[in-house]
Amino acid sequence: MRSDRQKISLNGQGTNFFRQYYSWLLIVLTPCVLFLPMLIRGEALFWGTPLLQFVPWREFALDVISDGFVPLWNPLLGMGVPLIANYQSALLYPPNGILFLVGPAWGHGLLVLLHIIWAGLGMRSLSRELGLGVFAQTVAALSFSLSGFMIARVGFLSINAAAAWLPWIIFMAERLTKEHATSRINRSNIRSIIFLGILFGFQWLAGHAQTAWYSLVFTAIWIIWRGFSHSRLRGVIRVGGALSAAGLLGFLLSSIQLLPVLEYLMQSQRAADLDPEFALNYSFWPWRILGLLMPNLFGNPATGNYWGYATFWEDAIYLGIFPLVLGSLFLLRTIRKKDEGRLPRFLFFFIVVSMILALGKNTPIFTFLFENIPTFNLFQAPTRWSFLFVFSFALLAGLGANYWEKGELIGLFWVRLGTVGAAAICVIALLAFFVLPDIKDSFIPSLVMMGVWFTLVGIVAWRRRLRPSIVWPLVACLLISIDMLWAGWGLSPSVDMDIYENQSELVNSVSDDHRVFMNSDMEYQLKFEQTHRFDTFFPNVDWRVVRDSGIPNTTMLDGVSSLNNFDPILSARYVEWHSRLETLTTEEYLRWLSFVDVGWISQWDSSDIKTVHYQATPNPQRAHLLDQVIWVENDEQALKIIFENGFNPHEQVVIERSGETMERAWGSDGQITLIKQANPNSVQLMVSTPTNTILVLSDLWFPGWIAEIDGVRSEIFQANYVLRALLIEPGSHTIEFKYQPFSFTIGVAISLISLTSMGFVLWKIRRN
How many CA atoms lie within 13 A of 121 on its CB side? Predict the structure, then answer.
C-alpha cells in the first residue's frame, strides 16, 4: 500500500516536472533548430544590412577600441560621419559586448538566436503574470518569438533586438500597475519602477527608434488602462507617475547613446518632416493579411520565388495556424459572451488599430495622421505597426489556449466539421494543380500546407475532446513549433565566413588612401537589381564579388574610404550636396570629386557586377590652401553659389559667417602634410605657408569638432556648404582637428551618475 502511494506521489512529481519544463525546452530549443546549424557550421548572416551596414560598422568600432580609442567618428564613409551617434550601430547596447569576444560576423547570428529566445521567455513571463497556465504561456511565447515579424527580420539586427524587449517591458508594467495602482509608494513600487526603467534603457540602447517608440506608446496605453481598471482616476494618476519616473530613468541610463543621437538627428535629413512618398513607401499590402493563413502565398525569397508587392519581410505577420485558431475562437467567444474580462477587448482593440496603421497609405486614416498628428511623420514604413498586431494576437492566442486546455473553447461538432473542411481544402488544392496549370506556382503549395496544418489542428483538438490528457497540450505545442519552423526556414540566409575575412580585390584596385566613389544609379542597380533583389536571397552571384565591387558600405571592411554612405541617418547638408553633385556637367562633377579627395570612380563594362572596376581621377586632395574667399550669411547662399556655373572649388571657397567678414590679403602658396594616425577622432596636418591663407579640409563639417593651431584653439568655419575651413597665418604650423562632442561627454556623466544612484537605491532597498 505504501509502495502504491509512493508511486502515485512520484508520478505526480514527474507530471508537475514535465508540465513545468516542457515549456522552457520548446521556447529555447525551437529557435535553436533554426539558427544553431548555421552557427555550428561557422557561417554568418550576410543578406542585406549585416553585410552592408552592421558588420562594417561594428568591425570598425572594435578595431578602434582595440587601438585604445572611443569610436565616436567614422572617417571611412561620406566625408566622415558620427559613429556612436548613428543610432542603429547600437555600439553601447550591452549585449553587443558578445561581439567583442566572438566577432561581429559570426556573433550576429548568436545575438539573433539569443534575442529570439529572450522574446519567448519574456512572453512566457508576461503570460504567467496575467494568470495563464503553462500551456497558454507556451503558445503565446512560441507564436510571438517565432512569428513572421521576428524571424523574417533577423537581418535587421536593431529591430530584432529592440522588439525582443517588449514582452519584458509589458511584464514589468503589469506588475507595476498591480503594486502601484491601489497603494502608495513603497519599496516594492520603487524596485518595479527601477526595473522598468532598466528595461526601457536596454530597449532604447538596442538601436531602433521606431520599434522603441511603438513599444512606448503601447506600454503607456497598457499601463494607463490597467491603472484605470484597478483604481479608476486615482490609479491612472499613480501608474502614470510611475511610468514617467521609469521612462526618465531609462532615458538617463541610456543618455550616453541618446544624447549624441539627438544631436545628430538635429543635423540630419530627418530633422525636418519626412517626405510623404518616402515615409509611406512601405505600407502593409492588404493582400498580405492572407499571410496569417499562408505565409508563402506570394512566394518566398528563401526559395527564390517571391513575387508580391514590395518586400517579403516587411509584411510578414505569420504566427502559426494553431495560435491563429485559438486567438480567433477566443475572440469570438469574448464578443458573444462578453464575460471574459477587459483584456481580450483591449487586445482586440490594438489588433484592429495596429493593422489600420500598418496599412499606411492604403487608407486615408494614416495619411491624415501623418499630416496632422505629431510623431506619425517621424518614421518610414508604417507596416512596422504590425509589430503590435503580432504581439497582441500572440497574447490573445495565449488566452484562448487557456480555455482550450479546459475544453471550453469549441464543441466537438465544430471540431469535426472544421477538420473535415480542412482536409477538403487539401484535396481541392491538389486537384487545382492539375485543372489550373497556369496558376502561380506559390498558390498550390500554400493552399495545401494551410489545409494540412488546419487538419492537424483539428485532429489534435478532436482527440483532446474525446480523451483529455496532459499529452495533448504538449502535442499542440510541438505542432506549433514545427509549423513555425516550417514557416521560418530559410529566412536567415547565411554564407561561409570567407565573405567577411581577408582583403577583397578592391584593395588591389585602389592603390592609395584616396576615397572611392560609386554613382547613385550604379549603386542602386548593383544592390537592388543584381545582389539584394527582393525576390530571392540567392541570385546567381558570388557574394565575394560584392566586396570586390565596393558596394557601400562594404568598403569599410577593407579600411577603404568612400564618398558614398549607406547609413540610415545622414547629415542633411551631405544629402543635399550629394544629390546636386550628380546633376553637374561631367567637367564640374570631376572637379568636385577630386576636390573632396576621390581618387577612384567605379566603372563597368556591361552593367554586370563582375565587370566593375575603378578608374583613377587626376589630382585628388583632401586638404587645400586657397586665396579666393566668398563670404555669405547662410547655408542657402552658400549652396546656391557653389553649384553656379563656373564655380571652381580648387580656386574659390565659400565660407558662412554672419556679421563682420575677415577681409585681408590671402595667398595659396605653401605645403600641406597629412599625418597618418590610428585615432579616427582626430586629423593632424603640418602646414607651411608664407602668407595668410585659407585651409580647407574636405571632411564633413559637424558640431563637436574643434581645431587647434600650434595648441591654440581656432574657429572652424563651414566651407563650401559641407566642409571645414581654418584661417592660417604665415609660418609653419601643426594643426589638429579633434572630435570631442559635448553631447557624448554629458551623456557619459549622466549615465554614470544615474547608474550609480540606481545601484545605491537598490542596495538600500535590499538592505532594509
Answer: 12
